[in-house]
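Discussion board: Methods & Data

I've been asked by a reviewer to show the raw model output for two of the constructs in my manuscript, not just the figures. I'm not sure how much to include, so I'm pasting the format here to get opinions. Each protein appears as its amino acid sequence followed by a line of discrete structure tokens. Is this the kind of thing reviewers expect to see in a supplement, or should I convert it first? Here is construct A:
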Amino acid sequence: MRSFSYERASDARAAAKSASVQDASFIAGGTNLLDLMKLEIVVPAHLVDLGRLDPGGVAPTPDGGLRIGAGVSNSILAADPTVRARYPLLSQALLAGASPQLRNKATTAGNLLQRTRCGYFYDTAAPCNKRQPGTGCSALQGFNRMNAVVGGSTDCIAVHPSDMAVAMMALDATIETVAPNGDTRRIPIAGFYRLPEHTPHLETVLQPGELITAVTLPPPPPGLQGYRKIRDRASYAFALISVASIVDGAGGHIRHARFACGGLAPRPWRVPAAEAALANVSADAETIDHAADLLLQGAAGHGHNDFKIPMTRRLLAHVVSTAVAGSDQELIHG
């Protein structure tokens, strides 16, 4: 690990100002950043420690939604009574990610900003445009079992690893930030993550020094909520494919459906046209298959990850049909 300067921030605005210098980075739980620093994949010259800031808590909003402090741990958020009762897919997604020890340290903001687990990103001997722009993408012709089949580019096919972010995408979260000059803004999560195109090292719309302070959720829409994750082993593994869903329907009829996918793309993948195809329709195989066509429009495997395309179709069909039948114990009324 290379040497760096270090300071503890006293409040959010001071932290943002301190992190506005070149090559500065925030550290909170450090569950991802410390690994990256040890491998010298990320080499910040200055660390701004957020550990003494108020984590922010979990509190209802006047419109019936929820506001989650940026420093709230994944364990506390997953166990929060309001989250479990009204946003169960978020609790399920959090519990599907990492180990209990990591969830105790990982924070809400840090989880949103997790770096990809693409093996070539972590292999400093291999070209990787996300780690070192302009060097190439080893995954395109390499072992790409975990990589993206939609949303990627000729420069990068890494996927976003966060389970929580997929749930937040389905729930229409908004991300609150403060900038080094004290300005605040609210960013809908649908516009928070960038696609790689030719700049895969730029993953979000955050500006240098801009600090996430909270995440807000609107009131949950009616319907059965659920988070389904397919992975290589039963615990502590990243998603091959995951689906966060909210399906309002019964008796073979769908009134409304929302879903976001993980493990599929460089960001949590949500396609409004696919959801529109499942509004006020019968939940038959042809209708669900059409929605899957729209969700996967432009999808292309790269050899080892070809299986993700049919797997996504089957998982979406399972989630929607079981929600409408009301027979899946893992799908809970929100």
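Construct B, same format:
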Amino acid sequence: MKQRQGTGSTGFGRRNITGGAAGWVWLAIIIIPLYYVVITSFKDQQAFFASNPLLPSTSPTLDNYQLVLENDFLRYFSNSVIVTVGAVIPAVLVSFMAAYALVRGSGRLLGGINQLLLLGLAIPLQATIIPIYWGITRLYLYDTLLALILPSIAFAVPVSVLILANFLRDVPNELFESMRLDGCSDWSMMWRLAFPLIRPAIATIAVYNALNVWNGFLFPLILTQSSDNRVLPLSLWAFQGEFSINAPAILAAVVLSVIPLVVLYMIGRRQLVAGLTAGFSK
């Protein structure tokens, strides 16, 4: 018995060593580019070309950040916030109500809607850009922030409904029956029972959709034109032209653009991990 335990412990230890080594390698692959971006954003042009790229500057400067902020960065930032909030909140609410109706309801119509939503998962974004462009121009929404919000909601709903419906199916039916006996309506059960119970899943899809919308590049490139409606991913591309030889300034813009994502992850980290863990445990 002791021999088997010793053998198992040795095998388990080898697996841990391999996994730990792979984890450190993966961590280095992620951390080193982030480290390079941050330290380079504090260098001036001379230090960027003359110093070791992996060593921080001996005389760090904030001039690159000042240069980025003086080139309408705050306007692009506010446009990204408007588009992200305007797309994520309606997408989450619509997806939650749709998932509740699909799980708790019945009928051929709901079955057809479910099949239609599943079909939306199979259609790539690039294949729909021409019909979306045609529809946006016919609605006279071209070069507006609403032109970015509407298609972002449409592409966020299918996967959000799928995730939320899986979580709602795990809510015991007895809880709904108890609230029904107490005289609660479907609307009341949806918001007072189902919504709090699947809060980790809602936080997960909110963070996931926010990342997709914030980093979206194709819709802003095709559906907007003026700098007044430019969002951060497109502005970074424009900065590449304006600061064509100023790499530290471009990287300073990159650092400023990812700060909201880091804050969002820190706020929703526990809910996000709980939602992903619950999904893997099924």
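Answer (T.O., handling editor elsewhere):
This is acceptable in a supplement if you add a one-line summary per construct. For B, something like: The first helix runs from residue 2 to 41.
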